Amino acid sequence: MKIVVGLKQVPETTNVKINEKTKNIDRRGVSGVINKYDRNALQTALDIRDVVGGTVIAMSMGPNDFAVSLQEALSLGADEAVLLSDRAFGGADTLATGYVLAEAIKKIGGVDLVIMGQQSVDADTGQMGPIVAEMLGISQVTYADEIQPKSDNELRIKRYDDNIEQEIIAKTPLMLTTTGNAGKPEYVNVVEIKNSFEKPLTTWTSKDMPVDSNRLGQSGSPTVVRRIMSPEPKERAGKMLSTDATKAAEELAGILHEENLLAEED
Amino acid sequence: MDQLKTREEILLRMVKSFTENEVAPFDSEIDQTRSYVNNLLEKVHDAGFYSLVTPEEYGGAGFDGRTSAKVLNILAKGNASIAVTLEGHYKSVEQIVKYGNDKLKAKYLPQSADRIIAFPMTEPTGGSNPMGINSHAEKHGDSWIINGDKIMITNGGLAEIYCAMVKTAPTELSFFVVDQDMDGFEFGKQEKFLGLTGCPIGEILMDNIEVDEYHLLGKVGMGPEIGNSAHDDARVLMGAVLTGIMEHQLDIVSEYATQRKAMDTPIIELQTIQRKVADMTIAKETTKLLYQQAAIMKDSGQDYEQEAAMAKAHGSRAAVKSGDDALQILGGYGYSLEYPVEHLIRDARAMELAEGSVEKMRTEIALIEAKSRV
Amino acid sequence: MTDIRENWIFAEKSINKINSATFQLITKMKSISEIPVTVVLLESQADSFENEIKQYGPDKILTVKDDELDKADDVSVASALSGLIDKFGTPISFIFAATTFGRSVAPRLQAKLLTGLTADCLDLSFEDDLLVQTKPSYGDNIMCEIVIPDFKPQMATVRPNIFKAEKVFDDTTKIVEINDLNWDKDANIQITTHVLPAKTDENLATADRIVALGRGGKQDLNNANELANKINATVGVTRPLTDMDEFDQSQQIGQSGETVAPDLLINLGVSGSVQFTAGIENANTIVSVNTDKHAPIFKQSDYCFNGSSEDFLKALNKVL
Q1: In chain A, which residues have their Cβ closer than 8 Å to the Cβ of C93?
Q2: Residues of the signal sequence (chain C) (predicted)?
Q3: Catalytic residue among B42, B355, B359, B369
């Protein structure tokens, strides 16, 4: 199977704050790591390859320093890596990013399976898998928990849609997105890091793919982030209920019903 | 892409995540059970940590002194014992690399990926005074017969290969590499130490062990030089371990002092607390600068003996003091065995003794300094 | 394609009923905009969920009766929704609940329509026809205000249980039944479903409701268990109580225990040490009962009862 794994480099901690002066996210001293769900995606790809054979290609779109994460993926066992990097890609939202990823996957050609993490821990959108799947015109299974190859072109997948357990038999070509339960990500082996430099890591710019420049970067992005804010600190009102237990219980029961706090989740 | 920089970044990412997931959650349990619970050693081995400083031509990763020190700094923030276990291994590997003949290197360096190597010097009659030791080796034709007992060995009992210091003449010290598979090799008792309790400390007994000539590290009589070199390498790494301990203390204290309130004010707003946190921060940062400076000098081939000694002498006292400040800030919680602060003091305290006492180190620092100025 | 002045909401079903998030979205969209609200419902011939939906007063329900679409996969549903837009025109907005299903289908549709989508919104408002979407990122550490100025429909998925659903009593909802929708079935996916028993999960970290006992509430374990059963809550304790035989470490809330984020947390005789409150910051609503009116826990609570937890529990168990 030819498998492409989408990887995003994200800040190592999501515990970030807004800089009061610049009104931007303060990322001082925060270094990058591979998005944790993408580690599950990569491991899933490696596990499938180890059973049915084939190639795992790690792919990421971003600035040049994202190459470190691709090199890490190679150290973890990916066979090849492609970095999609171009100033023209900058400022892309999910749609414009999905477009470039889809075009790159088309350029690779003959891809049976694309795997991505269920969402990135920084943007938290979870849109990339379905967008790229639609643009490639392939089927999708999102939030996959367990994945097993059934044959050369079929996977058996377990996932949960709230409290419905689903077992899915999916034929390739296919897009999978993985939860934190899929695959068991391993640690990079200290010695393997240097060996990974013998594997190919290629960079493609907008010139390497037949892309429509209007669909790239900011100009290809329908969404506009108008403002970023710190979340309002939770203030607790500390409202005192009646000092009479029976009255207090009635008051509380009313509040709980009114605020829908006793409703069963679906 | 700067390949060396990228290699280091990938490595440090792994070490951070390994520490967070496999080491830090078990810190107190390791301390209390005196063992590397949850298969920690197996995981450390499987991730290739044993091969970190072993040269590439012997199947290792060949990372330099600066990087290996950073690795131990990160690991020690999770648990100092495991970092000291690796420190003992790395300094031993480095002496085999530096002083071993080709045949010795070809035999033991590939094994360093799977077997821990230790560096026993101390005996009941001598440690900081090496001439006081009784172990000795006698030449018989092409081989040497080694006899004697070594005590208080870092990783003693866990390590499988030992670079042992022995006398080859009444006033002549030399090192030989022996391993647990040799006839006449036996393990002695295990120590129960106050701190770094996860790291085994034990004895080996050498009873007529016969080794080929190539097991001699360096040349006959090079004992003092090799011993000093091992000390220097260990001290750089200990500076890193101590930095990790202080970072751990600062994490605990920062979280507590920003949440704990006195009269509605988080106690971090109080100057008495701020003074302690500031002192702890300065102590951590100065130790970090010292060990990194020593490592950079080591990697660039300069003399780093004085810097290494300063990293350990300053860092060990600083970490004990910093631990005491942390305990005081946490009050009863700091004094409780349920919180890790108390064991961080015990851990740091070990490093005022190991690899040369702080007193001995001050002598070295003073003599180097004075001689360089006259 | 023509534009229509409507806001669309996708009606999500889960196991033979409409997901309550759909009702919450109807109420919310009606309250922030004058633009008519249309609910899109895919159901089997035998079902009539429109009757349930119309109690929340949408202006219109587009009901696609198709047995095959009823439990279809993401690709088929996205195709059907795109078919509806072809048929009726492009609405101003198209809103989904940020459930597993909503978060899978909405971006697929977004890519078909080449428009913008904001995932997992916590708030929505309108500036004329512009939908202002507030979404968290960096694990809720940052809030972003996002708009889609030049594309329609403006799409969003919205986190369930942020808004309150309100029934209305005027019956003016127009129901449009569609029986001839064209859509592409995804033949590559075969789904076998298996409905799990209702949550038996005793895991504190993921519990929706928690009853927490502190030193001052430990004698009320029976009453507390009764309350927990009534409201389907998990029981948690403060650190000192883990020494009791009835409890173990896994039930401890706080710094050295679990960090919890329930919708509702009821603290009984919990004083409110930092070690405990550090673990409850993400709870939605906190109710605390304590005999000490100066107990620090009251400052961390939304509702407080100063008195005996025994009396309070008995009274509450009676009324619930």
Answers
A1: none
A2: none
A3: B355
CATH topology of domain A2-220: Rossmann fold (3.40.50)
pLDDT recorded at residue B179: 97
In this complex, is the C-beta atom of B47 within 8 Å of any C-beta atom belonging to chain A? yes
Chains with 3+ CB–CB pairs under 8 A to C are A, B
CATH fold of B224-373 reads Butyryl-CoA Dehydrogenase, subunit A; domain 3 (1.20.140)
Integer CA distances (angstroms), C146 to C94, C135, C137, in order: 15, 8, 12
Q: Per the structure block, which two tokens stand in for C5?
A: 């002045």
C307: left (phi over 0), alpha (psi -120 to 50) or beta: left
Range of the domain at C228: 204-319
Measure B237 CA to nearest chain A CA, in Å.
Answer: 18
Report, as an integer, the average pLDDT of A49-59: 97
Scan for tokens 């009962």, then name that residue.
Answer: C289
Residues of A with CB under 8 A from a CB of B: 12, 31, 33, 64, 67-68, 71-72, 75, 187-194, 197, 201
- Residue B160 annotated as catalytic: no
Per the rule left: phi > 0, alpha: psi between -120 and 50, beta: everything else, B76 is alpha
CATH code linked to domain B3-113: 1.10.540.10
CB contacts of C255 in chain B (<8 Å) are: 255
Between A and B, how many CB-CB pairs are < 8 A? Answer: 60
C196 domain-assigned: no
Whether residues C99 and C153 share a domain: the answer is: yes
ipTM: 0.90
Share of chain C above pLDDT 90, in %: 61
Secondary structure (DSSP) of B180-238: TTSTTEEEEEEP--SS-TTS-EEEEEEEEEEEEGGGEESSTT-HHHHHHHHHHHHHHHH
Q: In the 8-state DSSP scheme, what is residue A188?
A: P
Cα–Cα separations (whole angstroms), residue B50 to B60, B90, C264: 9, 8, 49
Rg of chain B on CA atoms, in Å:
21
CA-to-CA separations, B207 to B120, B188, B304, in angstroms, rounded: 15, 12, 37
Nearest CA in chain B to C277: B259
In this prediction, the residues of chain B whose per-residue pLDDT falls under 70 are 128
Helices (H), B2-101: 3-18, 27-33, 40-46, 65-78, 80-99
Paired residues of C212 in beta bridges: C236, C267
The CA distance from C258 to B74, in Å, is 25
Q: Is residue C197 over pLDDT 70?
A: no
Q: List chain C residues with CB under 8 Å of A161.
A: 14, 99-101, 193
> With contacts defined as CB-CB under 8 Å, which chain C residues touch B261?
274, 296
State mean pLDDT over C31-59. 95
Alpha helix ranges (H) inside A77-216: 94-108, 128-136, 192-195
Average pLDDT value for chain A? 92
B24 contacts B75 by C-beta, under 8 angstroms = no
Q: Are A183 and C76 in contact (CB under 8 A)?
A: no
User: Each residue of B69-121: pLDDT tens digit?
Assistant: 999 999 999 999 999 999 999 999 999 999 999 999 999 999 999 999 999 99
Average pLDDT over residues A34-63: 97
Query: Does 2.40.110.10 match the CATH number of domain B117-221?
Result: yes
pLDDT in tens, C48-58: 999 999 999 99
Across the interface, which of A71, A190, A193 has its CB nearest the CB of B49? A190
Neighbours of B263 (CB within 10 A): 6
Chains in contact with A, where contact means 3 or more Cβ–Cβ distances below 8 Å, are B, C
Neighbours of C282 (CB within 10 A): 12
Q: CATH number of the domain that C253 lies in?
A: 3.40.50.1220
